[in-house]
Amino acid sequence: MGFLDTILSPIMVAVAWIMVRVHDLLVFIGMAGGSGWAWVLSIVGLTVVIRILIIPLFFKQIKASRSMQLVQPEMQKLQKKYKNKTDPASRQKMQAEMMALYREHGANPFSSCLPILLQMPIFFALFRVLNSLGPLAEGTYVGGDNIGPLDQELAAQAESSTLFGAPISETFLSTTDPTVKVVTVVLIILMSVTTFFTQRQLTMKNMPASALDNPMARQQKMLMYILPLVFAFSGVNFPIGVLIYWSVSNLWSMGQQFYTIRKQPAPGSEAARLRAERVAKKRARRGLPPVEESTAVVEEQPRGQRVQPKRKDRAKKTGPATIPPAGSTAATSPDAAEGDEPEDDITGDGEVRGKDGLTDAERAQKRYEERAAQRRAAAAKRKSQAKKKK
Question: What residue intervals traverse the membrane (predicted)?
């Protein structure tokens, strides 16, 4: 057993255990034990299990990347402040201010790399497991007769398994079989393209324009084009099974990012604008006012007086007050002396208010919120009753 296998041995056992258990499940539901697709799908199952386990780190990565982008304008001001100061005291003070800035915004330069860093040992462990299938099947594996539950018989099955006629343990450089080369090239292209769109989705669609004009944003944009090339050139050394793992992992990341960015976009980003448009259309279909036209802010009045709603966005009336003609009702009314308005009136912004002091739109919003509160109360009651029954 080589030095790398010794270090990766516990992870190799865990990888083999997940693959074998997924394979057993597939055989249990009716797939052939020696089928190539059973072992291909066991690698897909391994990918899904790993990605589910690191979901918390994924959300931490999204948050860290967003925070690092948003903090860049202030970081540039800090760098300009200490631009020509090279003495140790100034450098130490700059580092302290940078750390304080990171803490204030909840940013961590290393959090954005956690999912990739955590997957790298699994990536190499899967690489070593696939490379060991041949020696393990022949009984010449220096690490023993098995890798966890992956024994000689199962290793022989996995070794002979194929994807569209290409063995999953073969690499582009290790064979002259054209089928292996075609399948490998297709998987490398898929891996590179998904890597590119995953990075583009994170940096271009979920960041405000102000956060995209700084050195870090330009560096991430450069990586968006460099990383797919790195995978394209290094992919010729990877077994087909590893390429399957990485491609499925990238597809998972794309879907997970799409859902997260759609539901929780960064403020001021393109994704936030699109979400605001979707919310506005949804409210319009329900007959509700836009989000900006929220329910009026009502101030408490003394008893005996009509409650007069006042909205934050209501413009103040300008121009001289109109003096009613002598002898008119408005001139003699006590309410007029106090500046009160009639029961049904058109306000200064052109909206008709009823006796309750609300416009039609505000009244609809109020009814909607009351019904929503009733539904929440009913759901809470049902949940409480279900707990009592248990």
Answer: 7-31, 37-59, 182-202, 223-246
